[in-house]
Amino acid sequence: MYRSKDFLMMEVVDIKGKKIGFIKDILIDFNKGVVTGFSISSYSLFHKSVSISKKDIISFNYKMIIKRSRKEEKLKFFPLKGIDVIDKFGNDIGIMEDIVFDNITFKINGVVVSKGLIRNFINGKKIFLIKELILGEKNILYYGEDKKMNFKTMPHDVVGKNR
Questions:
Q1: 43 with 95, same domain?
Q2: What positions belong to coiled-coil segments (predicted)?
Q3: Domain that residue 116 falls in
Q4: How many domains does the chain have?
Q5: Are both 51 and 97 inside the same structural domain?
């Protein structure tokens, strides 16, 4: 599984080894629940930004190697980061902090929701499945049921009690 932060600032080169730029944002299709590509900030002064479709990616590790880039505008993740997540009763659940997606299909599996630094440290962050979320203009609606099983990210053993 990947998160958006795994790709930020990753250098992008083409097949010939020419440096294109670095990844500045992730392109998503929220309704289909997939990462469609990446937005690249170009090193060239004449090219402001370009997009890369996931089908044009040859490989990536610490650098991304691509076949070609395009000039397309799609929905970007970072303008959505920090948007409020509410439940079907209008209660504030938190803010969208990150997405979690599959490392092969790039299908978005979940959205990481934060309630603030102190609450994150005490209770952890919540992860909601993408199929239970609807993207609106001002917020994201969580319409899933409150289940007995909740996904959370918890802080590691900071004090070192179990050593």
A1: no
A2: none
A3: 84-153
A4: 2
A5: no
Q: Is 73 helix (H, G, I), strand (E, B) or coil?
A: coil
Q: How far is CA 22 from each of CA 19, 28, 150, rounded to the nearest angstrom?
A: 9, 18, 35
Give the tens place of pLDDT for each residue, 28-56.
Answer: 999 999 999 999 988 776 667 888 998 99
Q: Is residue 162 situated within a structural domain? A: no
* pTM assigned to the model: 0.80
pLDDT tens for each residue of 98-117: 999 998 899 999 999 988 87
Question: What is the Cα–Cα distance from 131 to 108, expressed in whole angstroms?
Answer: 9
Choose among 58, 1, 47, 57: nearest CA to 27. 57
What the block records as the tokens of 131 is 């199929």
Token code pair at residue 50: 């370009």
Do 94 and 40 belong to one domain? no
Q: What is the CATH number of the domain that holds 138?
A: 2.30.30.240
Q: Encode pLDDT of 108-160 as tens digits.
A: 999 999 888 777 777 778 888 999 999 998 999 998 876 655 566 655 555 55
